[in-house]
Amino acid sequence: MAMDTDLILVIGIVVLVLSVPSLLSAYAEARAPRAGAVLVLIGGVLVATALTQHSAGYTFSELPSVFLRVIGRYTK
Prior knowledge:
single chain; mainly alpha
């Protein structure tokens, strides 16, 4: 079974973006950012996996087209 590195990259980026509110909330309330740290770890592993497994690698200019390809593929 081939890995869909585009999907892994998009999920990783979305998880990283979702970790930001958790991290900011923990910082504002002076508590340990456990949930945010777990989300950063999961998202970072997913992004790193996608970057290392994709044969040609990704550039920043490709990210919008990757997002659109993934969204288009799974919303049909």
